[in-house]
Amino acid sequence: MEEIFKKFEAKKAEILEQSENKEAELSPEKQKEILKDAVYEKIMQATYTPNQQQVAQQQAQKLKDEPKERQVELLIQMTFDKGVMEAVEVAKNLNNPYLLDEFHDALVDHLYNKLVEEGKLKQV
Fold it and tell me: Is the pLDDT of residue 78 over 90?
């Protein structure tokens, strides 16, 4: 999670540096967009060991019969319990691009809210 926040901060600083008003605050929508990009970059850089892939496949099997909304909830919970990469690998093993996209969007919303709660982001 900390890596994602660092990527977010770097991207935010880059955008503000390019802006005419360097002291401006970004809108919550723009912050979420930057956070979504940071999460996506982290996901794309991930590499998994064969053991991690096997564990993810087993977890996906446990989730596959759950309703889609429940799958997203469980993947979000897994993110905070075991980490982004493990939850993403499980989501990929469910072989449902729509679900993966829903999970990505929900994860960004949860991360954003968590960062606001922790005072790392200001809600504008």
Answer: yes
